[in-house]
Amino acid sequence: MMNPIFLDLGIVQIYWYSVLIFIALLIGGTLALHEAKKFSLPEDFMINLFFYLIPVALIGARLYFVLFHWDYYGENLVDIVKVWEGGLAIHGALLAGLLWIIYYTHKHQVKTIRILDILVVSLLLGQAIGRWGNFLNGEAYGPETTLAFLESLHLPQFIIDGMHIGGTYYQPTFLYESIWCFIGFILILLVRHREYCKNGDMVAFYLVWYGIGRFCIEGLRTDSLMLGSFKIAQIVSIIMIVIGVYIFFKHLRQSKLENSYREGETFNETI
After folding, report:
1. How many other CB atoms sit within 10 Å of the CB of residue 60?
2. Hey, how many other C-beta atoms are within 10 angstroms of the C-beta on 86?
3. Which residues does residue 165 pair with via DSSP β-bridges, in sequence order?
4. Angular region, 254: left φ>0, alpha ψ -120 to 50, beta rest
5. pLDDT one-digit tens code per residue, 17-71
6. What element of type H or E holds 161?
7. What is the pLDDT of residue 231?
8. Which residue, 61, 74, 87, 129, could crosslink 24 as a Cys pair with Cβ 3.0–4.6 Å?
């Protein structure tokens, strides 16, 4: 198992998990700001959006995780704030973040779907980076496996060593999801640069792509949040896929020039 501590200052310890989340937010935010400029979207608008979106999403991710582990946290309330030790659920972040974005965009009379299209591109890259925090924390791994299986994947030795936890080798599901999200990031850039790209295409792609990947990978995970005998992430993934497919089919019924991603108000007139 890898060392989860990035820097030990004695009374203060900085965890790799926190560092990688910060890096993911920094890179993702920079990409979103760059895309927003193409629509004359004021930088102040985006910075204010991020200023509240980041803590709201983190709180949502933590509360979602805590809710499904209440048997433990109900008896250890102080541990709820120890987010640096892991325990953030992406679906909680997505839900809380979505609610904030809807509120913020409606307040400023900006199309919510446009902002979501901009953000989901960065989100996929951020998730690809963030999963490495799970690796360094020794979490989000799959079923028991063998050294021979891991070597057959031609993995770097440090990953193989990191998957040796408590004397047992495990499948690196964190890596599967990281690669899936990174491939999705490349593909969603291609979607965004299509000639007839529509508002909502990036959101639809994200929902379907991440939904399919997470559903399959979650089937291997050994630390899933459960609702009875069902894995919560798989249930949410199915919902995401259905919504994404619905958006795609809705767009197919529209003309090529209708609802264009590249056209419409430039935002600065509506803020």
Report:
1. 23
2. 18
3. 168
4. beta
5. 889 989 999 999 999 999 999 888 999 999 999 999 999 999 999 999 999 989 8
6. helix 157-162
7. 95
8. 129
**What does the block give as tokens for 121?**
């591109």
**pLDDT (tens digit per residue) in 217-254:** 999 999 888 888 999 999 999 999 999 999 999 999 98
Predicted TM-score (pTM) of this structure = 0.91
Per-residue pLDDT tens for 92-139? 999 999 999 999 999 999 999 999 999 999 999 999 999 999 999 888
Tell me the pairing of strands 164-165 and 13-15: unpaired
Do residues 78 and 84 lie in contact, with contact meaning Cβ atoms separated by under 8 Å?
Answer: no
Tell me the per-residue pLDDT of 173-211, one tens digit each, with 9 for 90 and over: 999 999 999 999 999 999 999 988 999 999 999 999 999
For residues 58 and 106, the answer to whether their CB atoms sit within 8 Å is no
And the tokens for 48?
A: 């204010």
Any idea what the Cα angle at residue 131 is, between residues 145 and 244, rounded to 5°? 105
What does DSSP assign to residue 198? B
Can you spell out the DSSP letters for 51-99?
A: HHHHHHHHHHHHHHHHHTTHHHHTT-GGGGG-GGGS---HHHHHHHHHH
The whole-angstrom distance between residue 176's C-alpha and the CA centroid of its chain comes to 14
Q: 45-51, long-range: CB within 8 Å, 24+ apart, which pairs?
A: 45/108, 45/110, 45/267, 45/271, 48/104, 49/101, 49/104, 49/115
Whole-angstrom CA distances from 49 to 45, 119, 197, 266 are 6, 11, 25, 17
H helix and E strand count, the chain = 10, 7
